Amino acid sequence: MRVFLFVPCFVDQVFPNVAASSMKVIQHLGCEVVFPEHQTCCGQPAYNSGYRDEARLMAMHEVSALLTIKPSPAPATKYDFDFKHDYIVGPSGSCVAMIRNFYPELLADDPRFEQVSQDMAKRTLEFSEFITKVIGVDKFSGKLDATVSFHDSCHALRELGVKDGPREILKRINGLRIIELPYNEVCCGFGGTFAVKFPEISTAMGDEKLKTFYETGADILVSGDSSCLMHLEGRARRMGSTKRFMHIAEIMFQSIDGKLTE
Amino acid sequence: MTELKSRNFKRLYKKEIADQKLRENLRKATIQASGKRNDSFSEVDFVFLRDEAKKIKQESISHLNDLLSQFEDNAHENGCTVFYAESPEKANAYILDVARKHEIKKIVKSKSMVTEEIQLVPFLEKYGIETVETDLGEYIIQLAGETPSHITAPAIHKSRTEIARLLHEKIGIEQNDDPAFLTGEARRVLREKFLSAEMGISGANFLIAENGAVVVVENEGNARLSTSAVKVHVIVTGIEKVIPKFSDLRIFMRLLGRSATGQKLTSYVSLIRGPRKEKEKDGPEEVHIVLVDNGRSRLLGTDHQEVLHCIRCGACLNVCPVYRSIGGHAYGSVYPGPIGSLVTPLFFGPENAPDLPFASSLCGSCTEVCPVGIGIHHQLLSMRQEIKPGSKHGLESFVFRNFRKTMLRPGRYKLLTRLARVFSSTSIVRKILKGWTGYRDLPQLPSRSFREIYKSEGGKG
What's the pTM value of the predicted model, to 2 decimals? Predict the structure, then answer.
């Protein structure tokens, strides 16, 4: 079994530490990890903004790119990915949902991609899902002294059905105190381009979410989606808060690495 | 029809969101309503009921023509007159005719979203016919000269104190914000209206094809009075409300009250089978059923057909974090919230609501609570994809075309993103990103992307 690491474009560019932590945690748990170098963007920003044709082209690129480890002149005819044994794992519920839930529909009428997008969807997992469903959560343990709350991203929660998994993972970290957010199923207001199209609504929603986070008294808000965190942290900083925001892969890596880096 | 306000969503929501008091009222009321809804479903199997309801609705909407003629035949047999109105104008003209034929000057009306949709009350008033809203929430809105801001709770944006002040100013009652007092006073005033009215107008929640009955669900008894204590009763509703069988109600009755107000069953469920029969002591002499199309039949056979399943419970509004932030008036439409962001462009044309399908974070809470299983947020997504290809020339379309071009060439992606990181702190970039930077800080950008780190460390990350 190998893990083909799916690193969403904004994680690659803005949160490389999230991708690196995901990779190291999966390696720590005994899996081989490869990073297919031709991958770029899954196409979700275009898809959700209504640009279906642009999204389709990006999806086609991403399918070929993710299934091929070493770049070769496109289009790839033979994939390196073993559909029986390998997995595609990404540290973002939202982008994983794009591949798993929307690619099969988006590429359904293209004979080159119809079957492969369906096969790929079945082997694509969000990072915490891979830990809990494939590796087994009890294989993981760590140690970290901190108080955290967990933020469910809507796409992980509702598109992928990820709810208990990340919490089970956090419970495997000795010394970690977890305080549930009130109204934890309410959206934080990021919503992709929604955040810049309707910034007043987006930040009003963000402020409500931050208020519930501050009420818990936790030091760190943990999530499986860096996009929610980028929005919430950006808003928190603007309003003068010094609270911390971390991806679950980062906190897992630090809990095995032994220290909470600044 | 006049140009819809929903065209100006961006202007409207900015005004509403600035109103702190409104946001507070809304947040409190919607969180409470959602909480009650969730509690009320704890004792029944929501998923089972929803799937059953969805099946019935799918069946009904796929056979809409047949069911409507069956309903029409049976309603006719029951002594009702059925009028099929293609447009708001035709519906209004028909209702005016009925009123004129009976020389009616005063009408009592119970809650109906379709009458809002066709602007019936202002239309009748133009012809000197007084129409009083008898649902308490609607009455408050009518007195305030406003429009409803919610499908089932029209005055949800008003606090108790605001309502007390309004009733004091408009109908001269003592200023006291005790709900029981306010309701009692409104009831007293409305009773007089009922006694003097000659015609009643109501909506309908369901039309039953197999026996021609009209089902009206409510909590205040005002709908029952508006439909029975008058000489002429006019029912105004959408063609999509028809369901095949009486027994189908057993599913919908368990879902509707819970979804709307967290009640196991609403206080009143009226089944109207037609006008007063010989030897019967009460009931109207005439019952007219006006079935409004207004864009609905256009959806048949399209990917948006399931939007016609909606039973107007309002659960998707209560749970929607966007609705909670801006309120119903911001949508500029009779139908606000997530379902309204679909219904408005679908019924009135996308040009009348170009922004509404985008006014969602696509969080999916709406879909989760919908009692008839409409994939609301996925519907919004597909609406976006239908609207966008029409605008090939805008800046956004240019951006996405170039975004795509970059993403298809990993070499170009690498180069451009490296440049972007270098220039990210310049003021020009900040200006371009003002939708972000005007409200939030930008994250501290790392010096190297993950792929650069990965490569330099020989694939070890």
Answer: 0.95
